[in-house]
Amino acid sequence: MDSIIVTGNGPLKGQIPIAGAKNACLTLMPATLLSEEPLTLTNAPRLSDIRTMTELLRSLGAEVTSMQDGKVLSMSSHNIHNHTADYDIVRKMRASILVLGPMLARDGHAVVSLPGGCAIGARPVDLHLKALEAMGAELDLREGYVHAKAPGGLKGGIVDFPFVSVGATENALMAATLAKGTTVLKNAAREPEIVDLARCLRKMGAQIEGEGTSTITIQGVDRLNGATHPVVTDRIELGTYMLAPAICGGEVELLGGRIELLAAFCEKLDAAGINVEQTALGLKVTRGNGRVRAVDVMTEPFPGFPTDLQAQMMALLCTAEGVSVLEEKIFENRFMHAPELMRMGAKIDVHGGTATVTGVERLKGAPVMATDLRASVSLILAGLAAEGETIVNRVYHLDRGYERVEEKLRAVGAKIERISGQ
Ligand code: EPZ
Known about the structure:
Helices cover 30% and strands 26% of the residues. It is α/β, with parallel strands linked by helices. The protein folds into two domains: 3-19 and 233-419, Enolpyruvate transferase domain (UDP-n-acetylglucosamine1-carboxyvinyl-transferase, Chain, Alpha-beta prism); 22-230, UDP-n-acetylglucosamine1-carboxyvinyl-transferase, Chain (Alpha-beta prism). Helix 6 links the parallel strand 10 (158-160) and strand 11 (182-186). The protein starts with a strand and ends with a strand. Ligand EPZ is lined by residues 22-23, 26, 94-95, 121, 123-128, 165-168, 307-308, 330-331, 373-374, 401.
């Protein structure tokens, strides 16, 4: 397993290009199953999760061709010969559940392994299943698989989500495009990735209104066409790299960044004393000489503070002046970066879903363990400004969501290198 060694190396300066969004691409790719015509995605990120989704779609019979070093994905699902998504792929990546809605909508049957939990929580898929049942699906859970049928095709229905779920909204939205009649999704997720999916589906001929609000209305159509669609900028990669100059000092411009993707996050950076400016090329982040100020953070569904940036924000607040309180409201176990940051000298008190961080002057490098995707990158960020050397182990987590992280950070002056493990 590879490790990454980071050494505190002073202020950063330069530009970092932001890739297409992992969490948009992982729902745009299954959308190919809705049509027999080719769907081409541009601005796709080069990540192991995208390769896993490619493997899954190919196992179903879809053709996926990766071009331009992985930035373009050309997909065609004209002959789906297998309707079973196997556990050995699904367990590697939960987003695999997103093939369920499209397969069911297009061919009236699908068998998909339940994804199981992951490091940050149990992560059930009950809302995905309830949404499809509201559209007439017959579901049977056997030996860890969902056996789904819709003999006469899905029918439009009212789906009232008891709480916001990004994935369940995506599964229901895709399924509803081919359902007979009108579907209304209430308390739908409003993330930019949902908006991006709706825009792509509309290009394919879907009739959708209200994406980006809590109520999305879909008028089912008989079939969808192909399309070409650019994957939206990754707001989580953007926020992650905005924290690099915030933690180290200096000035970094994040190419492709837009404030509206991360308004709540930018408000917190502003409160902490970090300057964020929209430029023609992206977002320019600078930090003056003073210490960062402590701020309180509570994670919420979009447009609130993103849970996927909570670990990274904690890395910044470890050396802020004062006490910060972080409340994780989305997942039940998303503070596993805290004990690792404490190995670096951070003062963090975790009780249930609340972490209280008392800022210290500076962290000290240490060997630390990556436990999940966003926790691992928060350790890299902490190591950028820590005194001495930080070794982050198990960085395969990192490669799921960050393309070429050491190249991007080295380009702005970070002292960082990857050590290949056995
Ligand atoms: C998506 O996961 C993202 N993943 C996550 O990013 C992100 O953290 C999450 O949305 C919240 O923004 C992808 O898009 C591939 P949810 P998802 O359904 O769809 C519970 C990353 O780091 N829930 O909005 O799985 C669930 O357990 C990843 O890139 C149910 O109880 O998230 C969680 O507590 C991590 N039943 C909460 O709802 C369900 O049927 C929100 O989950 C579905 C979810």
